[in-house]
Structure formats: C-alpha cells, structure tokens
C-alpha cells in the first residue's frame, strides 16, 4: 500500500486517496509551509480590491461547513467509508503537508471564498455556455494552497533575464534570413509552421516593416535538482497566458499568510509582489498611445470557446473577436488601417492563433494575413511569433549564434547560463544517445499550448518510427535535455477539492517590450507565474488540466 494522501472536499465528506507517488519531498523547491525566512520588501498588486466582508469571512472560515474535518489516515483504501474517515479525528494534530491538519479546512475555505470574491476564476467546463458568456458557470481557477519556496538568488537571476530576452526577441525578429533559414527544414514536414513562414515571406515581399513593436512574453524555467541550476524551458512570444490570474494567486497567498501566517510560521512578505496584470495592461495602453489615434481600439483575438476568458478580461474588456469574425467583419483600408465594426484597431493582442486547431479553415488564415498586412501593432507580429518557436530556441543555443544578435557579453553569458541542452535531430550522435537513454530527453514538436511533447520510452519509439519512415519527419522536432526539478508535497485545489500530492513547479517570468522605431519605450520584467503539477505528470498546462496556479515564497 502506498503513502496516504488526504483529499478534502468542500462537500461535507472528505475523501482519502492512496498515492504511491507522494513520497519524496526533500528538495530545493519545497512548499513554504514551515519554512522561516528573512523578510524583504514587496509591492502590492496595483489593482484595486474590495476588502472581504468580515461576516462572510468568519462564516465561510468556520469548520461547521464540514462535519468531518480532514485527517491523515495511516493506511486506507482509495475512498474509505465515511465512518472510517471520521474515526481518524483522533489524529487531528497531525501535520498535513506542513499544514496542521486542524487548520486545513479553514485555510481551504478561506482560499475558495477569496477566489470567488476576487475573480480568481475560470469557466466551468461542465456548464454549457461557460466558455462563451461572461458571468455564466464560473469555478475557481485551480491553485496551490500555499506558495512554494524558491531561492531568492535564482529568483533574481530569472527576473534579470527578462529584459535581455525581450531585446533578443526584437533583434532576432529583424533577421528574416535567419528565421527563414532556421525553419526551412521544419516547414517541409510541418504544415502549420510552413503557413506561418508563408505569411512572414509575403510580408518580406511587400517590404512590410513594423515600426512599433510590442512583445508580451513569458519565459518559463525549472530548477534542476541535481545541479541546482535554473534552466529555461521555453520562451512564449504569443498568447503568454495567466498574467491576470497569476497575479491574483500571489495576492491570495499573501492574504492567507496574513491570516494564518503565525500558525504556519510564515510571513506574507515572503511572497513577492506580482505586477503582471498591471504591467501588461500598461504595455498595451502605451502601444495604443503610440499608435496615436484617440478613437482607435485594442482588439483581443480569441478562440471561439474560451474557458480562460477571465484571465484575458483582467487585461482588456474592450473588443474581442475570433479569427473567423475578423475574416468576415474586418477590413484593410488602402493606407494599411485595420478596421473592424467601423472602428480602427491600434493594437491586436493575440490570445489565439498559436495552434493548428485555431485555424480550422482558410478563413482564419485570411484573418491572420489581413491583420499582418495592416498598420495595427500586432502582439505578436508574425516575426515575434516565429522567434518563439522551439526550433529557434534550439538554433539560438548553438555556439556563437547569440553573438549575432547581442553586443553585451555579460548579457550573452547570462542567457547562455540558463540554456539547457538543445539539439537538432540532424545530429546523429545525439540521436543515438536519445535512443539509448530516452528518459534524459524531451522530444518537442513546433507546437504551443501543452500536451505535444514526447517523454520517456515514447521518445525512443517516436525516434525509431521517424527513422523507419526515412528520417524526414525528424525535422519537425527538437530534442531537449530533460530537467528534473525536486518535488515537494503540495495541496492542489481543483473544483473545490484539495488533494495533497508530490508536485514539481515551473516558474514563468513575464516580460514586456515596446519599441517605436529607435526608441525603446518599455523593456521590463513584469511579474511572474508559478505553475505546479503532480510529479507523475509530464506536461504542465493549467488549462489542459495538468497543473495548478501557484506563487513563490522567497528563501
Ligand atoms: N526539458 C524539459 N524537462 C522537463 N520538463 C519539460 C521540459 N520541457 C518541457 N517540459 C514540461 O512540458 C511542459 C510543456 O512544455 P513546453 O512549455 O515546452 O510546451 P508548450 O506546448 O509550449 O507549453 P505552454 O503551453 O506552457 O507554452 C512544460 O510546462 C514542462 O512541464
Ligand atoms: Mg509554449
């Protein structure tokens, strides 16, 4: 029988699951529970918030909502009977994943109420129309109950990298030859990347330049437990998600630590301020301002169905259109102005358009092409989008390539330090190594949105299959060194149910870049997002159901 995990549901009866994976927690990355640390100054999120009504707080926080409080059982079946669970009350003093068992229901209740009152919500997939109509069928976003501890020095390192990556993206985006050549072999076997490159090539033919360039990026990192080094997983240049909700999770955790910090031995000031939403909104507003047409709008390009709409609404509530709607309603004036619904679009902010699924017909491709030709500021432009492909990440990691784009040697050194091993599959030596020890690698196609990477034994099988098919298909992938972060026991809350499990975390640092010709108007680190997933899961997507939103506690 494996280790016992407490699952506490907001329904009256708690559930106990047996989880063999929840074993190791000694790590660099540990849940903040029980960690005492030096304090430092942090800034509050700038958004205005309503204070939570005291009466509601005490009612929701009362353990009366659960006649059977959570408890740790020594050994139990998967869903032990109610009597059996309640019989374990005698161990109420036990520590549950560093949270005293008696405190868990109260913290959970507080967190769930706080989420509902403060907009930490997503559309509930079980409710029809929740992906289309705001205010219908909301459920709290999945979150970790307490922040995860993170070394201050590595946090600083990750923050420092943001403006350097911003600049790198901008420089690389201007080198069309580099982009086209690096992705040349990929396009032969990957139609989606091929279509993006076609748009890019057409812009070159039209001599189209982007004088005002806006990037809203998120660079993702994992801490490797063996080397204790921070490695970049990837850089997202399109549709970087959760600037709205990630910021709220930091606030949730600070709020919980303000209330329960004494009992937990934690201080809310350990959670750094998270400015993601206000800084991204600022970047969009500055770009709009630079366009210099007071009647113009910011257009958010969305999917036909979007359960993560509230994350987007935190940034902009103005005009939202799908690619298909842009195709049918948008027009391009002879002078390059992009208009939709009779209004001029200053900024196009893409929260769709990064995956082949976003282009089910030619209509969506026409819309993308139309917007790209226009004088609207695209976030991202087709060039910025291509810079964020995994193939370009791998090309940039080759010796002497960063030097083509950046002058500052210190900056180059800082970037290189966070690059994991990255290889093209044209390299036969590395191909052999991957076949021998597939568990040390991740095989990645040119895709975004999670769920596409290949891990473990599947790496060997996929490579063997691609080789048998003649090897052409190998160009669709890159190979990456697999990073193994340390795991920590975590309380993961999804659908009102709290489950304790062994989990690993991935830190995303947001960065915004705005340039108008030679003037850099903004180049900043803009807050962060921690995502935490059970150790047994390879992929990390929150929306895809693999991970929960989290924040950090600096140590
Ligand atoms: N080298 C690696 N080592 C360990 N895990 C990895 C590695 N690369 C990716 N992963 C895991 O797979 C997830 C998805 O990988 P990646 O970010 O490269 O793909 P994506 O489809 O672009 O995802 P996203 O939707 O986050 O942009 C990551 O969040 C991480 O959990
Ligand atoms: Mg990505």
Stated plainly, the CATH topology of the largest domain is called: Rossmann fold
Strand tally: 25
Give the averaged pLDDT, no decimals.
85
Could you say which small molecules are bound to this protein?
Answer: adenosine-5'-triphosphate, magnesium ion
Q: What CATH architecture label of the largest domain applies?
A: 3-Layer(aba) Sandwich
Structural class: alpha+beta
What is the first-to-last residue Cα distance?
35 Å
Low-confidence parts: 1-30, 34-95
Binding site for substrate: 218, 238-241, 306-308, 312, 351-354, 531, 542-543
Domain Glutathione synthase substrate-binding: 297-387
Pathway: Sulfur metabolism; glutathione biosynthesis; glutathione from L-cysteine and L-glutamate: step 2/2
Enzyme class: ligase
Give a description of the structure:
This protein has 555 residues and is an alpha+beta fold. The chain contains 18 helices and 25 strands. It folds into three domains: 4-147, no CATH class; 149-241 and 266-414 and 504-554, Glutathione synthase, substrate-binding domain superfamily, eukaryotic (Rossmann fold); 422-481, 2-Layer Sandwich (Dna Ligase, domain 1), CATH 3.30.1490.50. Strands 1, 2, 7, 9, 10, 21, 22, 23 and 24 form a nine-stranded antiparallel beta sheet that branches. Strands 11, 12, 13, 14, 15 and 16 form a six-stranded mixed beta sheet that branches. Helix 17 (428-436) crosses helix 18. The two termini are 35 Å apart. It binds adenosine-5'-triphosphate and magnesium ion. Residues 39-85 are annotated as: Disordered. Residues 297-387 form the Glutathione synthase substrate-binding domain. Pfam families: GSH_synth_ATP (PF03917), GSH_synthase (PF03199). Belongs to the eukaryotic GSH synthase family.
């Amino acid at each position: 029988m494996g280790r016992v995990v407490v699952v506490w549901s907001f329904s009256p009866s708690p559930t106990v699951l047996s989880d063999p994976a929840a074993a190791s927690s000694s790590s660099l990355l540990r849940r903040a529970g029980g960690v005492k640390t030096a304090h430092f100054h942090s800034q509050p999120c700038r958004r205005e918030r309503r204070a939570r009504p005291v009466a509601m707080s005490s009612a929701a926080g009362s353990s009366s909502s659960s006649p059977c409080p959570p408890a740790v059982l020594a050994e139990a079946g998967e869903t032990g009977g109610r009597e059996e669970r309640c019989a374990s009350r005698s161990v109420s003093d036990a520590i549950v994943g560093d949270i005293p068992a008696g405190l868990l229901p109260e913290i959970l209740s507080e967190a769930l109420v706080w989420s509902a009152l403060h907009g930490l919500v997503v559309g509930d997939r079980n409710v029809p129309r929740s992906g289309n109509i705001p205010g219908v069928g909301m459920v709290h976003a999945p979150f970790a109950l307490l922040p995860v501890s993170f070394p201050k020095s590595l946090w600083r390192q990750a923050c420092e990298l943001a403006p350097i990556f911003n600049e790198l993206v901008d420089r690389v985006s201007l080198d069309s030859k580099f982009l086209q050549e690096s992705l040349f072999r990929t396009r032969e076997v990957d139609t989606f990347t091929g279509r993006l490159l076609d748009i890019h090539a057409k812009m070159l033919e039209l001599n189209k330049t982007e004088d005002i360039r806006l990037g809203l990026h998120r660079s993702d990192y994992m801490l490797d437990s063996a080397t204790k080094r921070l490695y970049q997983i990837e850089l997202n240049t399109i549709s970087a998600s959760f600037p709205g909700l990630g910021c709220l999770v930091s606030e949730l955790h600070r709020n919980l630590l303000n209330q329960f910090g004494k009992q937990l031995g934690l201080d809310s000031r350990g959670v750094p301020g998270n400015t993601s939403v206000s800084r991204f909104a600022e970047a969009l507003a500055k770009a709009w301002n630079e366009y210099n047409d007071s009647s113009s709008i910011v257009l958010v390009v969305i999917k036909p169905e979007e359960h993560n709409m509230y994350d987007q609404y935190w940034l902009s509530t103005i005009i939202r259109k799908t690619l298909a709607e842009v195709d049918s309603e948008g027009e391009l004036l002879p002078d390059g102005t992009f208009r939709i619904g009779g209004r001029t679009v200053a900024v196009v902010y893409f929260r769709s358009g990064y995956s082949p699924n976003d282009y089910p017909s030619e209509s969506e491709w026409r819309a993308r092409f139309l917007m790209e030709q226009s004088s609207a500021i695209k976030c991202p432009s087709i060039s910025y989008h291509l810079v964020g492909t995994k193939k370009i990440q791998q090309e940039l990691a080759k010796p002497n390539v960063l030097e083509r784009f950046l002058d500052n040697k210190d900056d180059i050194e800082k970037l290189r330090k966070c690059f994991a091993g990255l290889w093209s599959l044209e390299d036969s030596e590395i191909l052999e190594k991957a076949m021998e020890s597939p568990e040390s690698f991740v095989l990645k196609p040119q895709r975004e949105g999670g769920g596409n990477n290949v891990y473990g034994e599947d790496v060997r099988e996929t490579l063997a299959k691609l080789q048998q098919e003649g090897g052409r298909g190998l160009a669709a992938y890159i190979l990456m060194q697999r990073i193994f972060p340390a795991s920590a026991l975590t309380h993961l809350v999804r659908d009102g149910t709290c489950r304790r499990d062994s989990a690993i975390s991935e830190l995303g640092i947001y960065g915004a870049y705005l340039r108008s010709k030679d003037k850099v108007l903004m180049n900043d680190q803009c807050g962060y997002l921690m995502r935490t997933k059970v150790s047994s899961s390879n992929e990390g997507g929150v929306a895809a159901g693999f991970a929960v939103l989290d924040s950090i506690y600096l140590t």
